[in-house]
Amino acid sequence: MDPPSSLRAHFDRANSQKHSLETLSEALSGFQECRQLTERLAIFSANETEEDISSSDLRYLLIDHYLGELLRQDCITDRKTILQQAQLAYERYLKLLDTYDMLSKADSKLYQRYLSSRDDFSLLSTSDPTARRNTKIARYKQEQELKFKLKSLAQVPLALQNDDAASREFHLAEIQLCTHNTFHALDIICQELQIIALMPLTSPAEQPEEREEDYRQRNGAPSNNHSDRLDPPISQLMKNGRAGPILSKDGKPLKPFTLLDSRQRLQNGVFKADHALPTMTIDEYLAEEKRRGGIIDGGGQTGGAVQEADEDNLEKADMETMKAREWDEYVEANPKGSGNTLNRG
């Protein structure tokens, strides 16, 4: 296979693998191989212009851009080193476009501003909230227009294969979109590098054996006589002053101690029933409830008995008779339902 075909095969394979996380390392290796092949074949030269690049070779300008995108997705290696490598890849991409004078006026100004402030580059250079908002809106609209243009050109794949002008227009639109994304990525990389610079320096991660060795030394255990028991031996407790006599033979305290009266309480807690025992009798409970007003006297058969009328009490009998007559007269004068006049039909 001739070298150009080999470059085309490597690029197509890496371009198809860059969309999956499972083939991320393969895609990264493929684009690195493509970059080496472009340098070996001298496809790009500083003495040429955009018109001197063939339409089929325009896509090889994006190799460094794809390398930067893939490097930013690496979260396993040292983050600072990865970001610096991605930054260099983006710089090579922009430098190559600037060599061929393929940057627009706005992108050229951004590139010059990036070169002047490489460590603190930001797309939003002003602190004015209104200006920052307008910049975000303008860049978002520009990105949507580039995506729409690229999508419209890609809808006719046969034209891209047979028409050299359509293929060239498609690759140039793709380069414009990637350039837009490159400046956005450089902005994010600069912010992340500034955050990493503020982080405290950390020593390399210790091995598990070293952490276990340090734990044993802090607890006074010899490293060559390790045991998996949780409680330390008596000899170690005696050595650290955690056991042994509290008072000397002369009655002097050998170490601090606290007098507790919990011996009888602990003993009573051990030798007791396994359920809660009552604290008073039923009579005591009823008496307490009556004292608090929880029991009402009366009721039952005695409270509900009807008293018999006294036939010898004529005055009371007359009162009951008059009361009954008045009720009968009231019932006759006010029949049932006579007062409900609202619901009548």
Layout of secondary structure:
Blueprint: H1 3-17, H2 24-41, H3 63-72, H4 79-99, H5 105-116, H6 129-153, H7 157-162, H8 164-198, H9 208-218, H10 234-240, H11 263-270, H12 282-291, H13 300-303, H14 314-333
Helix pairs in contact: 1-2, 2-3, 3-4, 4-8, 6-8
CA-based shape: elongated
- The number of helices is 14
Oligomer classification? single chain
Helix and strand run: HHHHHHHHHHHHHH
Number of strands: 0
Average pLDDT for all residues: 80
Strand-pairing-aware structural class: mainly alpha
Largest sheet: number of strands, sense, barrel closure:
none
Report how far the terminal alpha carbons are from each other.
106 Å
Proportion of residues in extended strands: under 5%
> Which range best describes the helical content: under 10%, 10-25%, 25-40%, 40-55%, 55-70% or over 70%?
55-70%
Low-confidence stretches: none
Quick summary:
This protein has 345 residues and is mainly α. Helix content is 59%, strand content 0%.
Q: How would you sum up this structure, described in words?
A:
The protein has 345 residues and is mostly helical. It is built from 14 helices and no strands. α2 (24-41) packs antiparallel against α3. It is elongated and about 140 Å long.
Main attributes of the structure:
345 residues, single chain, mainly alpha
